[in-house]
Amino acid sequence: LGSKVKNERLKLEEVLFDEYIRKGSRNESWVSDGEIVYREPDGSVMLHNVATDWKKILASNASLSSINVDRYLLSADQKYILLMTEMVFKNMYSYRAKYKIYDTRNSAIDQFEIDTVEGDFDYVEWGPKRTQMVVVSKNNILYIPSYERRERAQQLTNSGREGVIYNGIPDLLYEGKSHVIMNVQAQPLVYI
Question: What keywords is this UniProt entry annotated with (predicted)?
């Protein structure tokens, strides 16, 4: 970076005390060593390279204006944004939600569905490679090797029982932690 940085560098104080961050309205997350994804006050989802100050609109506010997005996650290949809507909290960190998928290449929005799963999901997250996904529904875990081929979802657990066994859903002791963790090679998968 050094001499190639033309503008003033971002200071820790600017990040810690930024009004948007303090209010939680931008929902920033790191997507690589030098890039963050965040939501602008107008609702647009942006990708920002902090080293070069390059910015790209991944989803415009016009595209998302008809959807009440509670949270969002960018896929590893940056082709899709997972939009969480209608979140209903069970307790402080655990929730059920409906999910939509926003295609960053053509602005299309589709309801996220899996043929073998009915209703809302307890947990959905992108994996570390391309469009891998992990899904928890009815206390059972499914692995999807590729969003484009979600009909090939593999059910990893089938012992989930409401009030008894919660695969992939942390109990009160582990609330706020990741439910399911995949390493970069996506094998093996670890879950609570």
Answer: Aminopeptidase, Glycoprotein, Hydrolase, Protease, Serine protease
Q: Give φ, ψ of 127 to 5 degrees.
A: -85, 180
When pLDDT is averaged across residues 97-108 and rounded to a whole number, the result is 94
Does a structural domain hold residue 171?
Answer: no
Q: Could you list the residue range(s) of the whole structural domain that residue 16 is in? A: 1-61
pLDDT of residue 62: 92
pTM assigned to the model = 0.78
Which residues are bridge partners to 71 per DSSP? 84
Look up residue 117 and give its two tokens: 């799963």
Listed in sequence order, the residues at least 6 apart from 27 whose beta carbon sits closer than 8 Å to its beta carbon are 38, 39, 71, 72
Query: What is the tally of structural domains in the chain?
Result: 1
Nearest to 157 by CA among 183, 192, 114: 192
DSSP 113-124: --TT--S-BSEE
What is the Cα 143 distance to its own chain's centre? 15
